[in-house]
Structure formats: structure tokens, C-alpha cells
Specification:
Oligomer: single chain
Shape: globular
Strand content: 5-15%
Length: 393
């Protein structure tokens, strides 16, 4: 039976980074774009309807955050994740990436250390460096048999014990390796942070995107003690495919830490958001559950298709099935190419545009990140192109 997600949506000439930047990024316009982490699916009808209704009012002035927006978010996390948020804990933010930068500035001084766990989403690196803080790397460890990753908690303890360590940026679920961290891992991470007085910013933007056959996501804050120094970043943008609307939320139970984060945003005049962001945010959380459930089933089938195709048809490439996100982490080290050669091979020979693993830190060398948030027919073309290119290699 055909799915609504099988229907292609033309994104060319819509100022889409994913599609319209292909020439600039890859040097050719005909690569299949499976890189930028947005999906090629129409957003939930309720979101489009809310945006359309708001557009029908012809004044687009400065806008307040309505009480109904906060309540939609509170209800979503209580029902979907069993996490009970108090209204006063919420600080609206202009996106998760700006929140990473703001956390570095709010909770670490210039020259102090921020721990990250590569391979990880590139803004984790840039948010630390561009704010004048120092990166402390606690690399994930890959199981050579299964390809799955785990935290190196013993090394994390050493990183946290450094006199300059102030903040830990956690990616949960993890981009790009697709891990959904277990309660045991998260509890130990909290214990390390507690012992060394670290502030933890937990980026949980992919929290709704865990596969039906995997363990559910656990919100880190749901395991925390009352006095833990914890900031949780969430947004409906990945869940309902509307990252261009650029609105997220921070949940910060401690009033002083909330005040510190708010001060950073206000110093840069960042809190303003447009009325369309507000309409999309609320409608996603209020009406998007059924759409999301159907999406997750479709993404799981996409994941399984790619996993099977890689093992059967793409010699020299391995992949561990992710537990969450719509991103797959392809291990291409057996192809024997350096990182420049690997990117060149996929772009020039296969005509496929992916994210080079090296952009996620040195532990990503030899890997490529594949976005499976697209119709199955697109993934079939991707596999066929890589298969043909490998035959020539």
C-alpha cells in the first residue's frame, strides 16, 4: 500500500539549502541530495493549515508567545515522554544551535572547557570555538563487531575532572551515529556531571524520532535530581519537518541558570520570533502525533531497506542500523580511500551528495552521513548509483 511519504515533493528553486546549494557545495547540480538534516516530506496538514490561517491576517507584527503554545509543549512531553515540565522552566529560544552557543557563553568563561562527544554534529565544535571556549573531546567508542557506539564513561570522568571543564554538550539521540542512550548510560553521565559540577546541555531535538523496534528515548531531565545543573533543548522542527521556522525551547528548572541563559539571548537581541514560527510550533505539538507515528513506520522501513541493500550490494561499506534519527552513518573505511578521495568518489562517480564524516570530528574519518528522510524511490536511486560506482572502483 502506497504511503503519503512515497509522494515526491519538488524542492528545487525554493531556496532550499539541501537542493539549491548543490552546485556550491558539491560542484554539480545533479547529485541526489541526501545531506542536510531536513526531510523531503510535506509537513503535517495541521501545520500547513495553521500557517495558512495565520497568513490570512495581513499584519505580521511583533508577536507574543501565547499561553497555548507553552501548554501544547507541556502536554506533548507529558503524554509522549512521561516528562512533566513546569511552565516557569521554559525559555523560548531561536533554535537549538544558537542555544549551544548561548550555553557556552552562559556557563563557561573565555578559555574554559566544554566537553563534546565526537563524532558529533558540527555546531557542537563551532559553538565552543566561536564563543572563545576550549573543546574537550570525549570520543564515542565503536564496537568493532556490531558497529554500534557507546560512551566512554571512564574517559568522560577524566575530562570532567579537568580544572577548566565547565559544560558538557550531550547529543541525545545522537547525530550522526543514531544511538538512543540507555537509562544506565544517562544516569552515569549525570553522576559524572554531579561529581564535577558540570552544567549539562542536552540537545534532544531528535527525541521524537526513535524507531518503533528500538527502546524509547529517555529525556535526561526525567532521571535528574532536583539540584542537577541541567538544560534541555527541544523543538518540534525535526519531528514535524519544519526546521526553517527556527523556534525551539529550553527547559531550565534552576532560576539562576535560566536567568543566565536569558541574559545571553537578550544581549544579542535574539528572543524575537515571527508569528509563523509560533503557529507552526504549537500546531505540531498539538496535532502532529498521528502524522509522526506514520512517519516513524516509514522511516523504519527506509532504514531497513538501506541496511539490507548496503550488506548485499555495496561491498566495502558497512552500516549499523540507527535506533533513532533519520540519519545513517556509513562506514566506508574498507574502500581504502582518504577523506578527500571518499567525498570525490561519492560526488563525481556516484552522483550522491552526503555529509563527509570528517566534518563531525576526527573520529568521523572514513565515514559518510546519509539522510533517509525521503521517499523510498530516492533511496533506491542512491543505492543503485553507489552500486554502479563501486563496480567501476
Amino acid at each position: 500500500m502506497a504511503s503519503v511519504f512515497d509522494q515526491p515533493v519538488r524542492r528545487d528553486n525554493t531556496c532550499s539549502v539541501k537542493f539549491d546549494a548543490r552546485q556550491a557545495v558539491f560542484g554539480r547540480e545533479d547529485v541526489i541530495p541526501v545531506w542536510v538534516a531536513d526531510m523531503d516530506f510535506a509537513a503535517p496538514e495541521a501545520v500547513t493549515r495553521a500557517l495558512t490561517e495565520r497568513a490570512q491576517h495581513p499584519v505580521y507584527g511583533y508577536t507574543l508567545f501565547p499561553d497555548s503554545l507553552y501548554q501544547a509543549m507541556i502536554d506533548w512531553f507529558a503524554e509522549r515522554h512521561g516528562w512533566h515540565i513546569r511552565r516557569e522552566w521554559i525559555l523560548m529560544a531561536p533554535g537549538v544551535v544558537p542555544s549551544l552557543n548561548a550555553a557556552c557563553m552562559a556557563y563557561a568563561g573565555p578559555g574554559e572547557g566544554v566537553i563534546i562527544q565526537p563524532p558529533v554534529y558540527p555546531p557542537f565544535f563551532s559553538s565552543v570555538r566561536q564563543s572563545g571556549r576550549n573543546v574537550i573531546e570525549n570520543p564515542l567508542v565503536q564496537d568493532p563487531q556490531t558497529g554500534q557506539y557507546r560512551m566512554d564513561l571512564e574517559h568522560l570522568e577524566q575530562c570532567a575532572a579537568r580544572p577548566d571543564a565547565r559544560v558538557l554538550l550531550l547529543c541525545s539521540p545522537h547525530n550522526p551515529v543514531g544511538r538512543v542512550w540507555t537509562d544506565a548510560e544517562l544516569k552515569e553521565l549525570l553522576a559524572v556531571a554531579r561529581r564535577h559540577n558540570l552544567v549539562v546541555l542536552s540537545d534532544e531535538i531528535h527525541c521524537d524520532l526513535t524507531y518503533p523496534d528500538a527502546a524509547p528515548h529517555t529525556v535526561l531531565a526525567s532521571l535528574a535530581q532536583e539540584d542537577d545543573a541541567l538544560v534541555t533543548a527541544v523543538a518540534p522542527s525535526k519531528s514535524f519537518n519544519m526546521p526553517g521556522l527556527g523556534l525551539s525551547a529550553l527547559v531550565i528548572p534552576d532560576p539562576e541558570r535560566r536567568k543566565a541563559m536569558k541574559a545571553v539571548f537578550e544581549s544579542m537581541h535574539l528572543p524575537q520570533c515571527n508569528p509563523f514560527s509560533i503557529a507552526g510550533f504549537e500546531s505540531g505539538y498539538r496535532h502532529g502525533a498521528a502524522w509522526l507515528d506514520e512517519l516513524l513506520s516509514y522511516l523504519q522501513a527506509n532504514r531497513d531497506f538501506v541496511s539490507n541493500a548496503v550488506s548485499r550490494r555495496l561491498p566495502g561499506i558497512d552500516v549499523a542500523a540507527p535506533e533513532g534519527t533519520y540519519l545513517m552513518w556509513l562506514d566506508c573505511r574498507s574502500l581504502g580511500l582518504d577523506d578527500a578521495g571518499l567525498k570525490r568518489f561519492f560526488v563525481k562517480e556516484a552522483g550522491v551528495g552526503m555529509n563527509p564524516g570528517l566534518s563531525f570530528g576526527q573520529p568521523g574519518s572514513g565515514f559518510m552521513r546519509l539522510n533517509i528522510g525521503c521517499p523510498r524511490s530516492v533511496l533506491e536511486q542512491v543505492i543503485a548509483r553507489i552500486e554502479a560506482a563501486l563496480a567501476g572502483l
